[in-house]
Amino acid sequence: MGKSSKDKRDAYYRLAKEQNWRARSAFKLIQIDEQFDLFEHENPEKVTRVVDLCAAPGSWSQVLSRVLIKGESFGRRAWVEKKAREEAALAGANSDATDNGADGDADMKELKPRKNVKIVSIDLQPMAPLEGITTLKADITHPSTIPLLLRALDPEAYDSTTSSSPSTIRQPHPVDLVISDGAPDVTGLHDLDIYIQSQLLYAALNLALGVLRPGGKFVAKIFRGRDVDLIYAQLRTVFEKVSVAKPRSSRASSLEAFVVCEGFIPPAIHDGSMGIDALKNPLFGGAAAAHNVSTDGNVSIEVMDVDSEVKPGANLTTTKTVSSTGPHKENQTRMLHAESDSSSKLEPLSQKPVTERFAVENRWIPPFIACGDLSSWDSDASYALPPDHVSLDPVQPPTAPPYRRALELRKEKGGAYGKTKLGALGRA
Ligand SMILES: C[S@@+](CC[C@H](N)C(=O)[O-])C[C@H]1O[C@@H](n2cnc3c(N)ncnc32)[C@H](O)[C@@H]1O
């Protein structure tokens, strides 16, 4: 598809170029903020430290930079200001419309840079620099990324503690928000793509658990596959509120959505100490996860006891932890189905036994929220362009795309898009 044709079919692709965003994904974050006020526009001091995972080419980082560092108005703040202007225009239609309109405009243009901003962005791919943002080229699923992130967030604390005991590093300044737009190179095999995507999510969550402040927020891309409700339930164990957001700029036909998790509740096992120890023992597994190892050093798995009976009313079942050599350990777990216990409240699962937190039966469906102003562009529609439309180049082409060698080879043979110097002969 040519640039011009893509401009027509994808309004957000065109707008991103016109508004100087490195990728159309910028609109997804802005529309999520519009709904959830991620950046707390009325209490700006509450969101100043942010980690952007899987950040290349960097449009989400651009949003962070423009909102937090430059103090520009996007998302919820822009929406509130727009509403205020509309109301002012309505109210002042007869009398002092001009004055009110001028106030509204002033509000919109007022820059409100935040103090003590720290933004760390990580991606597998190198990312063109952005002023004021620390960028790291690293794999978020790899344990070696953990110290890189901790050092980038708090260099002094990290350097002064690692020499004595790396495992006792406490995060002196935890972060307020972790966002992750991680996506693997899609293979087209849905189950595989969804699986890899979920591993990215677990890796992002693992990092978030280690660096978020209590009450902090976590936003991550998710593919709504068959067993996604299990992930939702797991997220519910460490966040007060979990929602699924579908921004208007994300195509309706795509499985993509975003989990928006608010009110981080540090899990008890972390014991308040954040840092390497907490990060190296991921709660939910994921690619970077260590296997569960019992005290005798054997890898253990938890299985449902086939003999166990669920006693009516009691809602209890027995599970055994089976170690390859060690003795069996019995645990009692309680199902959390709301309908099976009318007195049960939706309370954080982190306060429940581990066996209960991970039970497949504990699935939970979060609210699904379509976000983005209804007047905004429809990502599934094609729009007619004016005849004099000039198609712009992308703001930031990938610095080192994995397909670079293929492009070079193609160029050597005569050019992109199959147009070779040899014409039909060359293509044969
Ligand atoms: C959809 S893009 C992110 C777009 C970005 N949010 C923006 O606004 O420009 C997905 C990114 O995930 C990155 N990614 C995939 N797997 C990763 C991993 N294991 N570690 C770090 N980044 C990864 C890819 O390199 C890619 O840049």
Automatic annotation (TrEMBL):
GO biological process, one term: tRNA nucleoside ribose methylation
InterPro entries cross-referenced by the UniProt entry: RNA_methyltr_E_TRM7, RNA_methyltr_RlmE, RNA_MeTrfase_FtsJ_dom, rRNA-MeTfrase_E, SAM-dependent_MTases_sf
EC number: 2.1.1.205
Region (Disordered) residue spans: 89-108, 319-350
Superkingdom of origin: Eukaryota
Primary site of residence: cytoplasm
Low complexity composition bias: residue spans: 91-103
Substrates-to-products reaction catalysed: cytidine(32)/guanosine(34) in tRNA + 2 S-adenosyl-L-methionine = 2'-O-methylcytidine(32)/2'-O-methylguanosine(34) in tRNA + 2 S-adenosyl-L-homocysteine + 2 H(+)
Active site: K221
Function, in words: Methylates the 2'-O-ribose of nucleotides at positions 32 and 34 of the tRNA anticodon loop of substrate tRNAs.
Homology family: Belongs to the class I-like SAM-binding methyltransferase superfamily. RNA methyltransferase RlmE family. TRM7 subfamily.
Name the record gives this protein: Putative tRNA (cytidine(32)/guanosine(34)-2'-O)-methyltransferase
